[in-house]
C-alpha cells in the first residue's frame, strides 16, 4: 500500500462520520481517505433498519461497491481514485484516493487501552499509519467527542467532521432583521420615490446598502421614529420597501393575538403575507413561536379561507426517558408530543368567546381544522392548500428538512419553528441542524422570510430562568 503523495493528507474516517454523511468520503478535496476494517464491520452491523442512520449506511455501502467494481486486488491496494463515482457539481475536486485496510497493522496502544474495542482499534491503526508513513500527516476524523479526547491524549491529530456545517459560527446566521444606521436617509433619501397601493405604503430607493439586503428582510430605525419596513424586491442598486403592518394593537390583532415586541410584529407580517410560502422562526423558549404560527394559521384558514386546514408535525425526540409503545391512531400516538399545540389552542380558544360555552365551541371548531401528523409517514405525500407547521425543527437533519419541504403542493405554506439551543438529536449541532440549513439557503428567495425572536414573553419567571439557568 503506497499512500505517499506529495502535499496530501491521509484522513482516517470513524464509523460515525459515514453514518452521519454517506458522501463524506468524497468531501476531502485532493486528500486521501482511509477506512479501517473495523469501520466496515460496524457499518455491516448497522445496515438493517428503517432509521436515517441505517439508510445512510446502506448508501455508503453502495458508494463503496461502485468504487471497487471491476478492480483487482492490486488496484485496491494502490488506492481507489474517488473520481470513479460521479456525484454531480455539488462535490468537486475529487482528486484523492480511497484506501482500505488490507493487512494487519502493528498494535501500538498503551497496555491500559485494549484493542478489542472498536474505538481503540481505530486509534491503534492511526498510530500505526503515522509510524509507517512519517512523511504523511495522518488525521483521525470523528463525530465522537470522547474519541477525539482519547486521540489527543495519545498525541494523535483528530478533527470533527465540519463539512456538514452550514456556517462556521452560529452568531453569523441570518437574523431576518437589520437596524439601519442613523445617517441612512442622508445617503438614500435623495432619490427616493413613494406611493400608496392596496392600503400599503411603498418606497423605492437607491444607495450603497441595498446590496447587503435580502428579499423579505425587515429593516428598522432605532432612533425612536418607529420606522419599520420589509424589503419587497431588489434590482441591482435599487430596492422597493413596504412599511410593515402594525400588529402591536389589540384592535389589529391576528385571531386575538397581538405583537408584544418588534420581532413578533415582523413575524406576524411574514406569517400573514400570502406571497410568502416559507417562513422560519427561531427563538428561545417563551418567545411566542408556536402561538404566532398557530394564530396566523387559524386566521388565514378560517377567516380568509386561504387554506383548507392546518397540519402540525414535529420530530419525536424525547427529552428524558422514552415512554415506550403508544396505542391508538396516528393522531393519538402523536398527542403526547403535541403539548405545545394543545396549550396554545386552549389559549387561542379562550380569546374567541365571552363565556365558557362560546370558548368550548370555538376550540372544538378550531381543532376540526387542525390535523396532527407524524414525520414517519411524510415521504411520498403532497399537501395541497395546507398550512404546514413543523415544530422543533432544530432536531431535523438537512435531508429530513428537504423531504418535508418538498411535500408542498400548490397553495401550501410551510412554517418551520425551533430553538437551536435545544437540540436533542445525536451528532447534530446548531451549525449543522436542518433548521440552520434552510434559514441560510432560503434567505435569498423572494417567497421566503425569516425572523429571529429575541425577547421572551411567556412570564417574568420563564424569562429569568432562560437568561440565568
Automatic annotation (TrEMBL):
Pfam families: PhoH, PIN_4. One of its GO terms (molecular function) is ATP binding. GO terms for cellular component: cytosol. It comes from the Bacteria. Keywords: ATP-binding, Nucleotide-binding. InterPro entries: P-loop_NTPase, PhoH, PhoH2-like, PIN-like_dom_sf, PIN_dom. Residues 9-149 form the PIN domain. The keyword Nucleotide-binding applies. SMART domains: PINc. In the N-terminal section; belongs to the PINc/VapC protein family. This is PhoH family protein. It comes from Methylomonas paludis.
Amino acid at each position: 500500500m503506497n499512500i505517499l503523495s506529495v502535499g496530501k493528507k491521509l484522513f482516517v474516517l470513524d464509523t460515525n462520520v459515514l453514518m452521519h454523511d454517506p458522501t463524506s468520503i468524497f468531501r476531502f478535496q485532493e486528500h486521501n481517505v482511509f477506512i479501517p476494517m473495523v469501520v466496515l464491520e460496524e457499518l455491516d452491523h448497522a445496515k438493517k433498519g428503517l432509521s436515517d442512520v441505517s439508510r445512510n449506511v446502506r448508501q455508503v455501502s453502495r458508494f463503496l461497491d461502485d468504487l471497487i467494481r471491476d478492480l483487482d486486488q492490486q488496484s485496491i491496494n494502490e488506492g481507489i481514485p474517488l473520481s470513479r463515482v460521479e456525484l454531480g457539481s455539488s462535490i468537486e475536486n475529487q482528486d484523492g484516493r480511497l484506501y482500505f485496510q488490507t493487512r494487519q497493522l502493528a498494535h501500538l496502544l498503551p497496555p491500559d487501552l485494549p484493542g478489542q474495542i472498536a474505538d481503540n482499534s481505530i486509534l491503534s491503526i492511526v498510530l500505526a499509519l503515522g509510524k509507517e508513513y512519517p512523511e504523511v500527516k495522518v488525521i483521525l476524523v470523528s463525530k465522537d467527542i470522547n474519541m477525539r479526547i482519547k486521540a489527543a491524549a495519545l498525541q494523535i491529530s483528530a478533527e470533527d467532521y465540519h463539512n456538514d456545517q452550514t456556517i462556521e459560527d452560529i452568531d453569523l446566521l441570518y437574523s431576518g432583521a437589520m437596524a439601519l444606521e442613523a445617517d441612512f436617509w442622508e445617503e438614500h433619501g435623495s432619490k427616493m420615490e413613494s406611493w400608496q397601493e392596496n392600503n400599503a405604503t411603498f418606497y423605492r430607493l437607491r444607495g450603497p446598502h441595498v446590496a447587503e439586503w435580502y428579499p423579505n428582510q425587515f429593516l428598522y430605525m432605532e432612533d425612536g421614529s418607529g420606522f419599520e419596513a420589509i424589503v419587497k424586491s431588489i434590482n441591482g442598486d435599487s430596492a422597493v420597501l413596504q412599511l410593515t403592518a402594525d400588529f402591536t394593537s389589540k384592535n389589529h390583532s391576528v385571531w386575538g393575538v397581538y405583537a408584544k415586541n418588534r420581532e413578533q410584529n415582523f413575524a406576524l407580517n411574514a406569517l400573514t403575507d400570502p406571497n410568502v410560502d416559507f417562513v422560519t422562526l427561531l427563538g428561545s423558549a417563551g418567545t411566542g413561536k408556536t402561538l404566532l404560527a398557530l394564530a396566523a394559521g387559524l386566521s388565514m384558514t378560517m377567516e380568509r379561507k386561504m387554506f383548507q386546514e392546518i397540519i402540525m408535525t414535529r420530530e419525536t425526540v424525547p427529552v428524558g426517558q422514552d415512554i415506550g409503545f403508544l396505542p391508538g391512531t396516528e393522531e393519538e400516538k402523536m398527542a403526547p408530543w403535541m403539548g405545545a399545540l394543545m396549550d396554545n389552542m386552549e389559549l387561542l380558544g379562550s380569546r374567541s368567546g365571552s363565556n365558557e360555552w362560546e370558548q368550548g365551541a370555538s376550540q372544538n371548531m378550531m381543532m376540526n381544522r387542525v390535523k396532527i401528523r407524524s414525520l414517519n409517514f411524510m415521504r411520498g405525500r403532497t399537501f395541497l392548500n395546507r398550512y404546514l407547521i413543523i415544530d422543533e425543527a432544530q432536531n431535523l437533519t438537512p435531508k429530513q428538512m428537504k423531504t418535508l419541504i418538498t411535500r408542498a403542493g400548490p397553495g401550501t405554506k410551510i412554517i418551520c419553528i425551533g430553538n437551536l439551543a435545544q437540540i436533542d438529536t445525536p451528532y447534530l449541532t446548531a451549525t449543522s441542524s436542518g433548521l440552520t440549513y434552510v434559514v441560510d439557503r432560503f434567505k435569498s428567495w423572494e417567497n421566503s422570510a425569516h425572523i429571529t425572536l429575541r425577547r421572551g414573553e411567556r412570564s417574568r419567571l420563564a424569562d429569568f430562568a432562560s437568561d440565568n439557568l
